[in-house]
């Protein structure tokens, strides 16, 4: 870390996530001016020199690189932010850690559990600050859900269910591989919806409801062959188009998860619901400012599902934005994660999820894929409880 | 009244409302078996002899008549139920009262305030039991709203707003007059949406929120000429296609009402909302089993609009039906009104709204039409408070 | 069958379902007067003589019995309607069939697949009319879903998902066994949510989306011991409190089903959704008059989920009821099933689902329970396609 | 205008609106990089020197001023952005125009019609670019509504209704006057909800549905006295707490508007609905990414209200943000208005609404207040049609 409380960022990648992270860095001090640290957009890197220059100009990066190794090697960079396709995560993260850089890695942590373990080893050996961009934890309504869960209001938990439904790959003429559709290519992505979408659901689930012990899964690939961008030829599709699994949580509750890119009419319908003995909670990304809450303690004749428009100043993060009733959106979750990362520099603590915590999600993903392949239950070896007991989270919302 | 605790009904009319009332009589003892009195479907009457026979067979009436005077004259009939177009209400009701019959009159009470007053005079002079079918009071969710209001939970009331939006008369080729479209003919109906739809809104409003002091209204007739059924010729349309008004309630709150048959996409969207200092309520006929409730006393971070699915046994009337979660529908409101009428025979009290109370609604309707015509505010001369203090309502739901 | 086109009913049972069926018989000719056949409530039977007399009086049965064998033996009864706990279904149905009676059996058909097979054998040997009360097919919105599916608008189907969530058994002091809580006793019920709730979901699913080939399931019993009504002692709970399963349909789509009685805040949340290549459908029992529909063929900038209020005269069954916008409720599904049964007498055809079709649902339930027990996939041996090709359904809605 | 295509901003004010505008300037080139012009945050001004310095640092202004006249006088400023309480709008705008500055003025344009006219005169005499921040036009769902209306799909319009409901002033101990509550002081604000909230509704309404000819209004002040910040004494409250009005539009449709700050449970519930002969539209600020649309041309059995999640790349402005399904929020409307203002510099045209158009809204507000005071209808003298025919709007969304 430099003097002057600057966090000098080197960003690898110029795609969708590169935009959301850059926006996070650019906005954070307008809305969290009390933070001591400030991000500085030192460099952005992409193999395509023209594209990276345009990106740098658009987002205000001071310089560009076309080889990520150059970013890792630069002395004027404190933190490497990895926004590449998944097949580059491990190599870059390990090199960055070894070079003493902080690492902020886009999710999922890696393509495979083996890669993820190497990354955690490297990060922990280097002792550098790190975080993984499971951004949905920092939707204010989701953070509020966490506060309600932590308050104990739900009582014994019986059920957790989550869905992440999309419809963008129904068209059979969509290719696999390449810049726009690498998510359809298992070599680049590791898996299909499991790593892309269910990983989000699993991260939120374990954060809210604790460790997942074992899983039983099914996967499906509806369109068996697609043209590959790199070869121009029809090739077997290697990813999972859809995946569903049940699981047991450490707390005895039953989990049910489903994800697909073939749910016509749903663009990004990430929903979750928790049913406790005394209260239930549900949330939906399409209406991300709302949390629905059922409290069985209410007077019986007026008991119902309450639709909470999470835009008040005493709700998580919302004192930073506008006034009650005025919505924020998807991108704000990244601003919140940047803010919490800066806070962790200032006051210590983990900007959760860190690599170690993201490894637990990776374990579940791996078990899900193996279970689907074997047609039987799989243990996950998740060690959630231990982790939770020993680490302190840095979240600005927790101070409210 | 006969011995044996029978209520022998003579029904005048065979249209839509004749069906809803008949269904009410037929079902009531299946669901309210504890009532001492039972309805007996003694006679149904319509000028069309063939139609009336078919109706009698379908609904189980013991006999038919083609002249309503014959019904009024029959000794074996205790109560006359008036389901004719509005232009016959006064004449039949007055004759029935003079013959010592109980009278159950479809709403609105009359075409005009003058007619309504004569009816009330006749009914009160005769001292016969009477009720007017403002059925929406007996939607369980609406009755629950009344219970919440009466509990004082809302505090000082600031606003009351109600809409009744339909779209069935947009087609310019729809005629006026005749059996199916008499509601488009002011001679038969008295007025357009004011007497047909706003009358419902006004009845509910005064029941929930007290008397309406004065009104300022606007009306509109979008389609100026329609063929008249009786003449086959284009004639000026004499009804109001749409009507809106503001008002002051006796309790100081501001009211806003709107009704139309030209709101494309809305079939029967009757909604109301009450905003109090401490809590608010809203309801919607399209989802009639739900009541939405906002309680400002809730813990601030989980405060929201609660969607109450009013199907539990401790909610109004619902112990009579199925199990929690299972909806009832529109027709059940008439079953409830029959049940409450039977209860009023058994235990005394008014099966509200009675003619006197419906007269107050008529006063508001009249003031609305006059205000729209004059373009200025009008007093209503409503005497709500006095009435409420002196009469006891018979509602089975109140015993819960 | 008697002369005179009467269907003389002998009803066994006086519980919740006895009420819904009795209401169906009582209402049907008011709303479907064109039907040639009429139900006659000849006898109702229950071991409790006092209770059965009260029930008979409330619902209009001509006589009572306290031994179901007496009902089966009576010459003046054409059809036996079985509303007992599940443990009596097989014995009564087989005896009634052997006595040449038509049989209308409450769902699920039986406790076990073995029982169900014996029932189908008996019914088919006797050649008597039969139906099983999977009533949700006849919610107008669900029937509309079937019409949309049959129209081919959805294209290739990718996903089917259904939930049936309740919360009524969370209280640990609720006993098992006995009149009110026999559903918690596997001896009486056969299983827990699988036969009670998932059976409904499976019936609808196969009707809409074809046969289920294989399943992988999980079950959970959250409260392990409850007092048994008959012994007054704490005993191991033998039913499944919750059950989830995935499946493959014959058409290649992936199914996901979940049911529980521990989802706090949900009274009877039966929902299903179908995702096709070109369109999707979803439905929710709590708002049973609505169907949600997404049509990908819509102009892209106005594409969305359409909320269809299924109350128009050209929508299934709705020409029989009120006017557009006015809701019907849960009980109407039974009226519709009675109407379709009467129609099947008049015009031939099956009042679906019949015993044979309900057997297919039983096969899936059995496979689900076995899969959960084994922790592995199970084939169902469902023979859906064959059946569908050979039988003609009698549904009044299909003539619209 | 300077060379270099910079738009050098001088912002007056540091309150809520100063934040939303500053955010708009800061973000616009990240999301609209193709625009030739860039905003430069040259100076921010507030009487409170400490506060203005903190604001400048937070938002990146190059310099600060404590006297707005200094801003107007500076040569290095191209445009003055007015974010003061309403009582300063006229004086600053006129001075800025006279100094040849472009003017971007927060809504409402002025406290009174007289002030507004002077402002328009000054602006038009100076011939400087100008805009008024009626930001809700640039919610993508609202802009989509405009596109649908302009397409003619609605046919003849019958009804327009809008509400803006808040609940933030129910507490009687809230003072009037001062930095936080100047909106409760008519001297500072001009009026209460009429200028604050209904002005938004009126601007949108005339944009979507054309000129408003005449109005009939009612206002209410529920809390008659509040402590004034400046004196510390109880004083008569001079603003309207609530206001409702009907109106006739030039196109013959009927309008109904309501606004209040006493609708418990509603934080910022701005809703509007248009009912046309062939289709209807409605929108709600609490779910601002959605537009609801009813198209009567749909096949009758699947006709319903479509909930359009306006987040696709072919919907207004949304190609600039994320991917389908991912929401944006309130603040984005200001980014859009800045983008459209920059576009108007580059390609000509009006960044609507300009002062002239905002004057028409002011005329309606004035007529509303006068009508409420007189208890009778008032003409508005709005000249909407003429304006619309002669000016070209610059909206980036229109090029889609």
UniProtKB/TrEMBL annotation, chains A, B, C, D:
<feature type="domain" description="GFO/IDH/MocA-like oxidoreductase">
    <location>
        <begin position="144"/>
        <end position="282"/>
    </location>
</feature>
<dbReference type="InterPro" id="IPR036291">
    <property type="entry name" value="NAD(P)-bd_dom_sf"/>
</dbReference>
<dbReference type="InterPro" id="IPR055170">
    <property type="entry name" value="GFO_IDH_MocA-like_dom"/>
</dbReference>
<dbReference type="InterPro" id="IPR000683">
    <property type="entry name" value="Gfo/Idh/MocA-like_OxRdtase_N"/>
</dbReference>
<feature type="domain" description="Gfo/Idh/MocA-like oxidoreductase N-terminal">
    <location>
        <begin position="7"/>
        <end position="132"/>
    </location>
</feature>
<dbReference type="GO" id="GO:0016491">
    <property type="term" value="F:oxidoreductase activity"/>
</dbReference>
<dbReference type="Pfam" id="PF01408">
    <property type="entry name" value="GFO_IDH_MocA"/>
</dbReference>
<dbReference type="InterPro" id="IPR050463">
    <property type="entry name" value="Gfo/Idh/MocA_oxidrdct_glycsds"/>
</dbReference>
<dbReference type="Pfam" id="PF22725">
    <property type="entry name" value="GFO_IDH_MocA_C3"/>
</dbReference>
<keyword id="KW-0560">Oxidoreductase</keyword>
<protein>
    <submittedName>
        <fullName>Predicted dehydrogenase</fullName>
    </submittedName>
</protein>
<dbReference type="GO" id="GO:0000166">
    <property type="term" value="F:nucleotide binding"/>
</dbReference>
